[in-house]
């Protein structure tokens, strides 16, 4: 039988897991360890196509988040879907189902290098168990749960699995237990397919055990669409078993039913050792883009955790972007915001340019939808939605004014577009995709501005990065991003030897940036020091780099630092302040800001980031992008300009011994920063 042939690899793996247990008991730069469940927030294991939200219970994935699989139900906006969950196990020892309360010496270790969460525990006097969960990088839409079992006395052990169908997501689930007889022998598969509530998607999940038939006895229940394994084990008789599963949808496959089965069959034939070996290899390749901090373990862990989450949420060649919560949850309905281009994209552009390219591909593929949207509002060019769903249409809930009025998003897309060219120097891409998109952005901005009697220009009735101020005129960041996007469009036209309208330059030179009498930036016309949601005017110094005078930058920082909502403001503002202080060679002040960008947002036990100090909506990928920018573009001094990726003078906190930035840009350069 098929399973017989494969088990020996599983046993080998289990023995290695047990032998390495001691090495993983202590947190380090690659491992995050939890030893209690107080205030517990689980980590997400993702591979760019699905995300598995883990929990305290080692045998149960709490939810499966599908990447860019959207449906509309109950007259609401489009929302990314949870998948049918095939990653559910129960462990029964001597007739008793093991619960969390029964476990002693419980601990969890997140191995960020190989993207695996391992839970270890002891059932006193009976059995020691290690359970490892992985979302496979090498098999999209799929994952693996591996159990290693070490009996402390003679016991009977059973494993039970069935699937969970989120009732709020699906209707008419069809559950099946199937036995397939094929060239590889017998294969037993559980399969559940269902239609999304709104009827847009069909989703199917399949799963199967990978086990030793000489040790385990298999039983399938066709009525319940469940399966179990039972073994009688002697004291000291180590054994192992794996559950492999896949969740597919009609967004990605015309036939998700058979595709989910094919992936399970493939994994059974490969075996767990081969699967995990390739998975590890692919993650090692991703970690060629890495950040090493010597002298600050806390910073090292959080920076690498940020990379781990961003890398898990994206995929090379997917032509998809990343939502604010990535694949950790359905937060913000899985829509794509400016968070993608202005926060997550810059560090990925340095460390994973091919993954960053997919984020731009997402926008390019939806350019027609953006053109249609601009036309529908009486504008030219392309008007990108504030919250984009899979079709590239506006998906902002109607109660939020950000949808109709937060127009800096279009300029942000244009800025990211030209930065890709600057980083890669890919003139073919610029001519074929970059400039056509920039041209549409410039045309929109040209039609969006209002010419004033003095020859200057305004942008009226907008919402800026500070979303507490709606319907304002001449918002600093909106106007600043428009200026930069128009300049980039003009430069791109020259590089591609295309003519462009003179008005692009005229608007860029004359679009109003307002200041107070002392020269401090004024966030918008009429602004008088009101509480703001997040940094807005300060963004003109970085990332826009339109504000260059250190005296004025410091002045802006001092004015706006205390204007930010301390309870409900998102994490990114202080990361931006950190970049600016670091570039002005004030590393200790920069470090204070850096800590403020993540410490209040950490949730135990792993340090998962929430959006605000008071929220519970992790993992916040936007915040991850911000703190990575603080390190790369601040302490590390990297910049992207007309000369490509280069390094300004670095500026390290006194206790950091060194900072090493690896795999930067298309040439995979290394930058070492010291005092």
UniProtKB/TrEMBL annotation:
GO terms for biological process: carbohydrate metabolic process. Residues 304-527 form the Glycoside hydrolase family 65 central catalytic domain. It comes from the Bacteria. Keywords: Hydrolase, Signal. Pfam families: Glyco_hydro_65m, Glyco_hydro_65N. Gene3D superfamilies: 1.50.10.10, Glycoside hydrolase, family 65, N-terminal domain (2.70.98.40). The keyword Phosphoprotein does not apply. Residues 43-250 form the Glycoside hydrolase family 65 N-terminal domain. Residues 1-23 form the signal peptide. One of its GO terms (molecular function) is glycosyltransferase activity. This is Glycoside hydrolase family 65 protein.
């Amino acid at each position: 039988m098929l399973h017989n042939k494969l088990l020996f690899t599983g046993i080998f793996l289990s023995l290695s897991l047990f032998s390495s247990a001691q090495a993983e008991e202590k947190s380090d730069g690659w491992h995050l360890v939890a030893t209690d469940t107080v205030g517990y927030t689980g980590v997400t294991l993702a591979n760019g196509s699905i995300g598995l939200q883990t929990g305290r219970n080692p045998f149960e994935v709490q939810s499966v988040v599908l990447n860019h699989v959207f449906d509309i139900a109950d007259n609401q906006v489009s929302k990314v879907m949870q998948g049918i969950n095939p990653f559910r196990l129960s462990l029964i020892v001597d007739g008793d189902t093991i619960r969390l309360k029964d476990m002693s010496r419980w601990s969890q270790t997140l191995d960020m290098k190989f993207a695996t969460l391992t839970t270890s525990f002891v059932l006193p006097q009976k059995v020691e168990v290690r359970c490892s969960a992985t979302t496979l990088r090498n098999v999209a839409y799929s994952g693996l749960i591996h159990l290693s079992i070490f009996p402390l006395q003679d016991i009977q052990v059973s494993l039970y699995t069935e699937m969970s169908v989120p009732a709020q997501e699906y209707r008419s689930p069809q559950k099946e237990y199937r036995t397939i007889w094929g060239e590889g022998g017998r294969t037993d598969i559980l399969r559940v397919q269902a239609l999304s509530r709104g009827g847009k998607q069909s989703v199917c999940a399949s799963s199967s055990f990978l086990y030793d038939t000489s040790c385990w006895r298999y039983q399938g229940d066709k009525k319940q669409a469940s399966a179990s394994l039972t073994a009688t084990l002697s004291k000291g008789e180590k054994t192992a078993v794996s559950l492999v599963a896949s969740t597919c949808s009609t967004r990605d496959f015309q036939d998700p039913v058979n595709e989910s089965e094919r992936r399970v069959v493939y994994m059974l034939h490969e075996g767990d050792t081969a699967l995990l070996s390739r998975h590890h290899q692919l993650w090692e390749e991703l970690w060629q883009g890495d950040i090493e901090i010597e002298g600050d373990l806390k910073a090292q862990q959080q920076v690498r955790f940020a990379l781990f989450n961003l890398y898990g949420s994206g995929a090379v060649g997917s032509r998809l972007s990343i939502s604010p919560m990535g694949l950790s949850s359905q937060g913000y309905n899985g829509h794509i915001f400016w968070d993608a281009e202005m926060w997550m994209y810059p560090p990925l552009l340095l460390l994973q340019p091919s993954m960053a390219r997919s984020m731009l591909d997402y926008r390019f593929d939806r350019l027609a939808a953006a053109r249609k949207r601009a036309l529908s509002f009486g504008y030219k060019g392309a008007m990108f939605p504030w919250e984009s769903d899979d079709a590239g249409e506006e998906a902002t809930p109607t109660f939020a004014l950000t949808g109709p009025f937060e127009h800096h998003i279009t300029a942000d897309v244009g800025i990211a577009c030209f930065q890709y060219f600057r980083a890669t120097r890919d003139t073919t891409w610029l001519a074929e995709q970059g400039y056509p998109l920039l041209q549409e952005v410039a045309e929109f901005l040209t039609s969006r501005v209002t010419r004033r009697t003095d020859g200057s220009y305004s942008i009226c009735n907008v919402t800026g990065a500070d979303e507490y101020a709606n319907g304002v005129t001449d918002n600093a960041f909106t106007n600043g991003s428009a200026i930069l996007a128009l300049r980039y469009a003009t430069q791109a036209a020259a590089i591609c030897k295309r003519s462009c309208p003179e008005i692009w330059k005229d608007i860029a030179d004359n679009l109003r940036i307002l200041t107070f009498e002392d020269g401090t930036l004024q966030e918008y016309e009429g602004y008088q020091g009101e509480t703001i949601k997040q940094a807005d005017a300060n963004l003109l110094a970085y990332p826009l780099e339109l504000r260059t005078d250190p005296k004025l930058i410091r002045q802006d920082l001092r004015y706006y630092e205390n204007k930010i909502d301390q309870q409900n403001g998102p994490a990114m503002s202080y990361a931006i302040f950190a970049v600016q202080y670091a570039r002005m060679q004030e590393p200790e002040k920069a470090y204070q800001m850096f800590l403020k960008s993540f410490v209040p947002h950490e949730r135990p036990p792993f340090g998962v980031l929430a959006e605000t100090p008071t929220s519970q909506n992790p993992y916040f990928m936007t915040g991850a992008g911000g703190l990575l920018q603080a390190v790369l573009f601040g302490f590390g001094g990297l910049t992207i300009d007309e000369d490509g990726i280069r390094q300004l003078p670095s500026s390290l906190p006194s206790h950091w011994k060194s900072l090493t930035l690896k795999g930067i840009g298309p040439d995979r350069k290394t930058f070492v920063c010291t005092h």
